[in-house]
Amino acid sequence: MYLIGLTGGIASGKSTVARRLFEHGAVHIDADQLARKVVEPGTPALAAIVEAFGSGVLRADGSLDRTKLGTIVFADHEQLARLNAIVHPAVRELSGRLIAKAEADDPDAVVVYDVPLLVEAQVDHPFDLIVVTDAPRRAQVARLVEERGLDPAHAEARVDAQADREARTAIADVVIDTGGTLAHTMSQADALWARVRAEQRAKGSARPG
User: Fold this and answer.
1) Which one of 77, 132, 186, 208 counts the least CB within 10 Å of its CB?
2) Is position 15 annotated in a ligand binding site?
3) Contact between residue 51 and residue 107 where contact means Cβ atoms under 8 Å apart
4) CB neighbour burial string for 153-178, b if at least 16 within 10 angstroms, e if fewer
5) What is the per-residue pLDDT for 75?
6) How do residues 68-126 score in pLDDT, each as one tens digit?
7) Is 54 among the annotated ligand-binding positions?
8) Residue 14 annotated as binding?
9) Coiled coil located at which positions (predicted)?
């Protein structure tokens, strides 16, 4: 198995790169989806959130009201740290199981673990390669405004709340520049796939027997 950690700031083109690698045949695991799954009704993580933040963060049907919880934690670093201490370990455990399953299903699988908070959450899976999608701040803000309908001030706050670009690119083995055209981003993703497959072939031919 070949494990890629894919990260990058909000609206930095992660989904585009992940989709392209998936089209090439990679197994895609999305940390955002896992973060929703681990707080579904009946999960230990949701019970811990209610204990920490009160039943006011639940909807009438017992599911988590993300908007309400967001208003509590978004502007309060201490409360956000409390939430992360509940959610991140649960996501780590689930992602570990999914990665192990992908390897069991296909020992030669290329697994792309798409983790927006790879730096912040200190994700420690044994990655073969860490790939960072990188776009200029103004491009991230513009995408949030144009594609997600945020007002400019809110968009800037969302971008600035994340780890800075230097912290992310410092851990990168590969940086994909998504500030240009879609075709330019795609060609870099294609080159990455070719590199991974070449490395796998080299490893395979180096195996004894």
Assistant:
1) 208
2) yes
3) no
4) eebbebbeebbebeebeeebebbbeb
5) 75
6) 998 888 778 899 999 999 999 999 999 999 999 999 999 999 999 999 877 766 677 88
7) no
8) yes
9) none
